[in-house]
UniProtKB/TrEMBL annotation:
Lineage of the species this protein comes from: Bacteria, Pseudomonadati, Pseudomonadota, Gammaproteobacteria, Alteromonadales
Name assigned to this protein: OmpA family protein
Subcellular localization: Cell outer membrane
Keywords noted in UniProt: Cell outer membrane, Ion transport, Membrane, Porin, Signal, Transmembrane, Transmembrane beta strand, Transport
Signal peptide (UniProt feature, chain positions): 1-25
The species this protein was found in: Pseudoalteromonas spongiae
Domain called OmpA-like: residue spans: 239-354
Entries under Gene3D superfamilies matching the protein: 2.40.160.20, OmpA-like domain
Keyword Cell membrane: no
A UniProt-annotated Pfam family: OmpA
Family in the record: Belongs to the outer membrane OOP (TC 1.B.6) superfamily. OmpA family.
């Protein structure tokens, strides 16, 4: 390996470790404040790894070094919450071997570079921890040379990877990957299966969603002292009135828990303020887009958004029961956007109650 190549690889390692230290400092921020992001975004990253060429040397080699350090730069696009496409450019290191030829030991060195394009899927294990798998095609460029000859070749093959991802800051993600490359090389320069263990770091260009506005709390009015006057207590005749159950449905935008009250909803709010003994039930739903786990969280956020709105407008939280059902119980199919719009809903109901009202009064 030349001195120039060694210096280049040392520079890449230094840059990788410096980037990791900087991003680790960002992780000291308060991660408890969970921000919502758009599900589609681009990311860039770098990886350092260890590669082993399974059949890197012929059986009659005097000595064989078929392990080396590998480097990779990658770009990807995450979409639909769990799917991603990704492309990498890789320096897959060297193979060094010595063969006994014509009475002397002849050193050989093989070099390999490649780029790949793959599609993958993330499986969420927790809020910030994922496992993933991806498959794709790989275009390799190889070279083998000794003191007397030099041969080059290139071609295509298949590759597959599995690994783990961890979001340790808002935009930073670490990953640990095992990659298998099938039949890397050719008869002209030699062929081998590649096994690589990668340690990577990527930056995600996420866009934040629109957040819920902070409620406006009216200023407290100063208390007034009222002088008590003797009041003649009238004789009141009371009758019982049944206040029927009242229900209102509100719709949400796609992939959003931002609640915008309608005129009808504020009329409903006036109704439940007028009858403070009613019990309020909130049931929130989503359409079928996204994973079931993600939709459960989203419907919970929608139910809580309405509950917070009612509480901020004078409704005692002990009166409110909030439930969420994700993508279950659709009122129509999810085949079209118009149908899905009606499934992104929350149904708010006030219970039936009996109240006593004054029919009239007679002074005693």
């Amino acid at each position: 390996m030349t001195i120039l190549t060694s210096k280049w690889k040392l520079s890449v390692v230094t840059l990788f470790l410096t980037s990791f230290h900087t991003s680790h400092a960002l992780a000291n921020k308060d991660l408890a404040k969970h921000e919502q992001f758009e599900s589609d975004f681009i990311y860039l990253g770098a990886q350092i790894g260890s590669i082993r060429y399974q059949h890197g040397c012929e059986p009659w080699a005097v000595n064989c070094d078929k392990r080396d350090t590998a480097f990779s730069g990658l770009i990807g696009y995450q979409f639909k919450n769990n799917y991603f496409i990704e492309s990498s450019f890789m320096d897959l290191g060297d193979i060094n071997a010595t063969y006994f030829e014509s009475g002397i030991n002849v050193p050989y060195q093989g070099k390999m570079k490649a780029w790949d394009a793959a599609i993958g899927y993330d499986l969420e294990l927790s809020d910030n921890f994922y496992t993933f798998a991806k498959v794709g095609v790989l275009n390799w460029y190889g070279e083998t040379h000794s003191t007397s000859q030099k041969r080059k070749d290139d071609g295509f093959t298949t590759t597959a990877s599995v690994g783990l991802k961890y979001n340790f800051a808002e935009n930073w993600q670490a990953r640990l990957t095992y990659q298998y490359i099938n039949d890397l090389g050719s008869q002209k320069i030699g062929s081998s299966n590649g096994h690589i263990g990668w340690l990577g770091l990527s930056y995600q260009f996420k866009r934040k969603k629109q957040t819920d506005p902070k409620p406006i709390v009216p200023a407290a009015k100063p208390q007034q002292t009222i002088k008590e006057k003797p009041v003649q207590i009238p004789t009141v005749k009371e009758i019982t009135k049944v206040v029927p159950e009242k229900t209102i449905t509100t719709l949400f935008a796609f992939d959003s828990s931002y609640f915008v009250p309608s005129t009808e909803f504020n009329e409903f709010l006036t109704h439940i303020k007028s009858y403070p003994t009613t019990e309020i039930t909130i049931k929130a739903y989503t359409d079928s887009k996204g994973s079931a786990e993600y939709n459960n969280r989203l419907s919970k956020q929608r139910a809580e958004a309405i509950k917070n709105y009612l509480a901020n407008h004078g409704i005692d939280e002990s009166r409110i029961t909030a439930a969420f059902f994700g993508e279950t119980h659709p009122i129509t199919d999810n085949d079209t956007e118009d149908h899905r719009k009606h499934n992104r809903r929350a149904v708010v109901t006030s219970s039936e109650i009996e109240v006593k009202i004054n029919k009239g009064s007679v002074n005693g």
